[in-house]
Design goal:
mainly alpha; elongated
């Protein structure tokens, strides 16, 4: 999970001050966890330095407001369209997909399709390895690869379910 992209997601919807960003990020994370408020401000400083976000000044309660810049929107779109490798946790893709849904990302279908393609490629590679392990008689590695393939199959089924609900 990336605080950077969570903040960019939220600021692409509307301007927020730091504590609002923390609360909204906690909501995006769901059951995965909570964000340390200090992490929000450290990340905002880096986003401003990298010209992805800027401060719009203070609100009526003297809290610093932030907004996304064009460069930040481009960075967010690039991240949303980048498939999440399987060695990463599934929650990383779920977080990314949740960010896409939050901003009503018009390329969500492309995002899901690219993730599906990556998973299928990994399935093909692992199926080849699984066959070699079976022929070599390496039972333990064969079973480990079989387990990974079952997880990938479940991920493909989940993507199909999301796509069917979007129709």
């Amino acid at each position: 999970m990336s605080v950077k992209y969570g903040i960019l997601t939220l600021l692409s919807v509307q301007n927020f001050h730091g504590y609002e960003l923390k609360l909204q990020l906690d909501s995006l994370l769901g059951v995965k966890g909570k964000i340390n408020p200090g992490q929000i401000y450290t990340t905002l400083d880096r986003l401003i330095r990298d010209q992805l976000v800027s401060s719009t000044g203070l609100d009526d309660q003297e809290r610093k407001q932030f907004e996304i810049q064009v460069k930040g929107e481009q960075e967010l779109e690039k991240w949303l369209l980048e498939p999440v490798p399987y060695h990463s946790t599934k929650e990383d893709f779920f977080f990314k997909w949740n960010c896409a849904r939050t901003i009503r990302f018009e390329k969500e279908k492309q995002m899901l399709s690219q993730q599906r393609e990556m998973i299928i490629k990994e399935v093909m590679e692992l199926t080849k390895i699984k066959t070699e392990l079976l022929l070599d008689g390496d039972e333990n590695k064969y079973l480990l690869v079989s387990g990974t393939l079952l997880h990938l199959e479940a991920d493909l089924n989940w993507i199909t379910q999301v796509e069917n609900r979007n129709r």
